[in-house]
Amino acid sequence: MSLLNDTVARIREKAVWMRRHALKMVYDKQLGHLGGDFSATDILATLYFGVMRYDPVVPKMPDRDRFIMSKGHATGAFYSVLAGAGYFPEDWLATYMQPNSRLNGHPNRNYLAGIETNTGPLGHGMPVALGIAIAGKLSGLAYRTFVLTGDGELQEGSNWEAAMSAGNRHLSHLTMIVDRNRLQQGAGTEETNGLDPLDDKFRAFGWHVEMVDGHDIEALLAVLAAPVGDRTKPLCVIANTIKGKGVSFMENKAVWHHGVPSPAQYEQALKELV
Amino acid sequence: MAHGEAARGEAMRDDAGRQQWHDCREAWARTIEGLAEINPNIVVVVSDSVGSSKLGGFQKKFPDRTINVGIAEQTLVGVGAGLANGGKIPFVSAASCFLTGRALEQVKADVAYANVNVKLIGQSSGIAYGELGPTHHSIEDFAWLRPLDNLTIITPTDPWETAEAVTWAARHEGPVYIRLSRMPVPDLDIPNRTFRPGRAELVREGSDVAILACGTLVHLAVEAADQLALEGISARVLNFSTLAPFDGEAVLAAAKLGAIVTAEEAGVRGGLGGAVAEFTAETCPVPVERVGFPGFLPTGTIDYLFETFGLSRAGIADAARKAMARRAT
Question: Which residues in chain B have their CB less than 8 angstroms from residue A120's CB?
Fold first, then answer.
């Protein structure tokens, strides 16, 4: 029990550290996607500090667990977690989107260790994750493949092509996590092109579905760290999240999809992110 | 008579005088099966395209290594990138029009920009689907793939080059697009050939005009050169099978003759002709005549469309005379 408590406490601490970094990166550059960074932060922190097997010293270890950041615009969160995991020095975060930086606005696998595929255009992560999962099965390697998608992103048809194939192939070692913050760039997902009932959709595609509070570390750990066991279906975790989570004036506001804080807002946000 | 034979010239004859025509897909299928026997990491990825890719035999031998994602080209290409991440050497095979058109963003982002070890095999390229029309023609693929960094683009001209290109692609670490046709072609008659990706292959030496052709147009370029020879015109013929990386050296040398013709079973805007025009305009201005298709094509058989748009012995010879007439004196 105390081991779990330690893990949860460590993840929480890392999540605060990540949010503060993402905030600073976006504030310094006056560019980025803080709303989605903050809704995804607890999910990323849980994966990297409580679930996945990887070694930043041997980033291409063949049997490593893979993570695919399909919502590639949330680089504030993604680069922070990679730095926190030891893939590159923390001070590189200060180069975010600076000229010739390895930290491009969207992730490039050739720029930084720990990035499995280039993302940015939406709907690309699922097919690649599917291919990685198929390769693992063919090679007899027990690694797990995790892919994080946005929810608005699920309006892209390619996700459903891949979801159908993954269900048909019974890829139990494939886990997708939906960052279900219910907001996309311009408005709510349901008023734009509704996704509900999202759980039923994935069940119909042959997936095992779990719904969790995407900011409850213990709940995330319970579904993500659980061994695959005799589950024969791919796992879809619908993580109900809050866009802009952690900063009161950003929470649940579509404008913070790519909003940039003023100096006063930056100071206020820093005070709240502790 | 092989399909399309009348319009597309004479093939080589065997000892009994019979014409030998080949579907390069046979060479592709034979080669990939052979490579897969040796290398367990080779897999094929298809989108309900086993038959059209001639992969029935492969599937029988390697059912687990034949990954069929269904009719879903975006996933087809993305899965290829994922398989490469997992240490496989995926040959992603589907009709060129859908592989490169429907999945263009996956080819760009997941394969070329990410620079992963995926081999894209475009089947029935060009206008192989004839009367099925522009939705099924793949004559824009050169134009939209050529600007993508890291991606090698090869259009084999006969079974030998098809086998060589596929074998090379399996060894090469990086993305490759191999553009195959289903149209019957003859063997190119060159002794002691060596496959050199990235280099144009000298098919026929000549000193008055250079014809740069690829794929199904190379044997027609040779026939055009024969025809021009009767008029006392000496035409150099290059098999320009690698479009990217671009062999500028060969074009520079060709430009020294003072007249260039390009010939491809593709749109002239942005393809081989486009590439040569870009290069020569900046480097060595010279008259360039482009043989290829002007845009969306009307309904017609392959033969009709080749003939109508000058993808023929006569059409290429005409283009050569035109280019020479434009030459600065």
Answer: 109
